[in-house]
Structure prediction request, 246 residues.
Amino acid sequence: MNWLNVPEDVAARVLARRGTLHPFADFDPARTALVVIDLQNGFMDDRVGHAVCPMAREIVPNVNRLAHAIRRAGGGVFWVLNTHDAACLTEWSVMHGMSTAEGRAKRTAAMSEGTEGHRLWPLLEVQPEDEQVRKYRYSAFLPGASDLPNRLRARGFDTVIITGTVTNICCESSARDAMMTNFKVIMVSDANAASNMREHEASLIAFYLTFGDVMDTDFVMNRLAAVIPGNGRHPMMTPRPQTVAV
Prediction:
């Protein structure tokens, strides 16, 4: 599946503004963190989910590939868990007020700690050295929403690769806020998932125009392969024409 087509006029605007189609193609893997947003049963398991995104199940192999390569290259992997607690009902009452009573009850049941919905999807290859981070808003980088930014900076990471679900809500919110708190940010086109491709593409294009870089899994893997011990040196993948995919 082609997960993103970038229109020629969008690529032209990016090139004119930045002088390159991929401003973060030379990221340092040792200073890079893979941030996996909300790949939990509550968004992926039809039995217990409150807002299931079927596309999220399709990206799991790419997320696992990226996580394995990031670890081998000296970076870090952070699994972010959307979390509901009692404070959300008052401190984030606007969001809850836009839901029906039934919707609020389903979200509470799926996103509270200790529930089946709150757990990570079982096919994710989580390792002991990875970190798990709870977040209490859509964005993991909104001040006060999680301690992810502090954890990243404590380990010397200046670049984040955003994957997960939903592309145009929690992933894009996190990616934008990460850039605005001074991280270099890459969203991976075929390792983010939305309710449909129209919303997925619109979100990535909006992000790409202003906030950061968008690459596909193979592009990122090629860059990581250049520094993984035992792989030898590999040339950086040449960016493909933007009318095809990034």
User: Anything to note?
Assistant: Residues 232-245 have pLDDT under 50 and may be disordered.
